[in-house]
Amino acid sequence: MTAPDTADHRPRVVVITGGGTGIGAAAAARYAADGDAVVILGRRLAPLQEVAEATGAHPIVADSSDRLSSEAAIAEVVQRFGHLDVLVANAGGHGFAAAAETDDEAWVQSFDGNVTTAFTIARAALLHLEASGGQIVMVSSLAGLFAGPSVVGYTVGKHALIGLTKSLARDYSPRGVRVNAVCPGWVRTPMADGEMDEFASHAAHIDDREAAYAEITKDVPLQRAAEPTEIASVIRFLGSQESSYITGATIVADGGAHIVDLPTLGFEHAGM
Q1: What is the pLDDT of residues 143-172, one digit of tens each?
Q2: Catalytic: 154?
């Protein structure tokens, strides 16, 4: 077990939004394995309880896009544990359509789900993180750097998270709070599994989910999707003293996808 980062060796307190599934659940397990006190937030109790039973994390049902809900959750954390050291803003999703097919309600939902969730919970936590010299880790996406087809809300939201990361780092790092973002590529989460299933249902040459993952990642240098635990390790690094001189950064964890020169793929597929 890794010793906590604080000078007095107290267990660190880590809050993770979207902690009931996927990357959030993996981050909860990663921090808990280091002996940290982990709090997982989400809107659905059942998945939170499942992660809590597996990791020992403390579950709180909360909507991190809502000011009152976020403030109440952070207040409960501080009342229960006495301090707050790390915030992982992982909640996200929504926005899977092109602009002309995105109505006002869907647009607001995508922005709330991907950006407001992070802003609102960070605002509620900042004073406590200042007091502890803590960290914020924003979970953006490769979609925060590039645009995929028919995902306008998700793309804009994840881009905005990087801007939020930079703004928070600029304003609050002088006060002792480091803020960084991680941009995963394809990760084997329930959301990605659903996208692979849909892809397989529309592609004549794709038989199942595994074939879909193989097809989607064939031009990624590592030629596979990430496991949630791999992204959790990056989150753990950014939300610890091991990254003590890093703030305002965007760390890409995508198997090398972002280094590929797309216009040259035709040459490779032609065997040249």
Answers
A1: 999 999 999 999 999 999 999 999 999 999
A2: yes
